[in-house]
């Protein structure tokens, strides 16, 4: 069969080969949505037997029927041979049936991953049961990664080494091939990030320089960093999450013990805290606590992370702000200028609470923090004791093994009203949520019942859960 004949199945509906290829895609999308055959058949106006035959490739589909599957199951048109995603025309010749099916399965898998991150995180914690776990969360920590009590942010010394730092594992290893979809009929995407970029790109997705953790601890208190790229993190962390999702999405695996031998990339990682084996590139997650006027309880801010906008911790709640620990641009001068936990936190406050544009490297000079009004306001509040900032430690999300520096910022009510009274409900990464119909800035009450509900019953990102759990544990010292 030459290339023309193999491509022809994408343009006609009368050949049996087309539906042998489409059937698995239909089945994968149905399973990803958790739908029974009977329900899908009813919505399509066909019998369950007909649908079963479609999924096994024994039944041909008309153009109208393909359009119906695309509508009911949300299958991209090009996966059913209807159109090219980018141009609306015929599917490119190089996108063969095998490529389309591979990409369809991958999209389904990633969709399912984003719908079940909380459950998968709990399963990953069981897998890493030998590691230290922050109680009631899916965050694991190294032996000295957590402080015994909150550490004042300004007392943590940071050191930066800009020399190249090799990593033994990058995510391009052969064991990750099953979770990297086909780019061409003969080759998979080289990295997981390249697959995300081309097949399922969120609105915020670019590989910026990032600070790579090399050693030290909050307890010291000194931490050492080098340089890496954000996609170095995605290529390992999201691949690990996808591997676990692929192994469990059919529902046949219910516990971590049954996964032994089926997660080769996770097994290859070895010691998750080994800074030489892979690039550990931390984010900074901040629990923002507002000290309300008596008798109101303190409150904290909560965020819903939209899977269409972000590539990590998508489809779940998190405390806010949270962002990668990285320079504000690719410029050399920003590496040193932005190498500060506090400066990164303030930039995230600006973006996620006030809705201001992200610092994207479009400037020809470093950020002048000393003259930035928001930075001045928050700095003055720190000097006056009306804002306090602490580091609780660092940990790894068990699902992705992505690192996060855990911090808490406590703000007096008058300062909060003045600076963040106009907190936006929607930002570039999702939506800030609050209790009832009140202002977004009112947040969630920092009470035992609210903390228990989030930790025990809601899908909450592991770093946010750890910030909340540890802050509640240390609430007397934080709030006094």
Task: Label this structure with key terms.
480 residues, alpha+beta, 4-stranded antiparallel β-sheet, 17 helices
Number of strands: 18
What percentage of residues falls in helices of 4 or more residues? 25-40%
Q: Number of helix segments?
A: 17
**Describe the biggest sheet?**
9 strands, mixed
As residue ranges, the low-confidence spans are 1-18, 85-95
- What class, by secondary structure content? alpha+beta
Q: Gap between N and C termini, in Å? A: 76 Å
- Radius of gyration (Å): 24 Å
Kindly state the mean pLDDT as a whole number? 87
The 3D shape can be described as: globular
Strand content: 15-25%
Structural account:
The protein is globular. A hairpin with a 2-residue loop joins β16 (426-427) and β17. Mean pLDDT is 87; it is low at 1-18 and 85-95. It has helices spanning 3-8, 16-32, 37-44, 48-56, 63-73, 97-115, 117-127, 192-199, 230-248, 264-269, 332-337, 341-353, 373-383, 413-420, 448-457, 462-473, 475-479; strands at residues 132-133, 139-141, 146-152, 157-160, 182-184, 187-188, 209-217, 222-229, 283-291, 299-300, 302-305, 317-319, 322-324, 387-397, 403-412, 426-427, 430-433, 444-445. The chain is α+β, with helices and mostly antiparallel strands and 480 residues long. Helices cover 37% and strands 18% of the residues. The strands form 4 sheets. Strands 1, 2, 3, 9, 10, 13, 14, 15 and 18 form a 9-stranded mixed beta sheet that branches. Strands 12-11-17-16 form a 4-stranded antiparallel beta sheet. It has a 3-stranded mixed beta sheet with strand order 4-8-7.
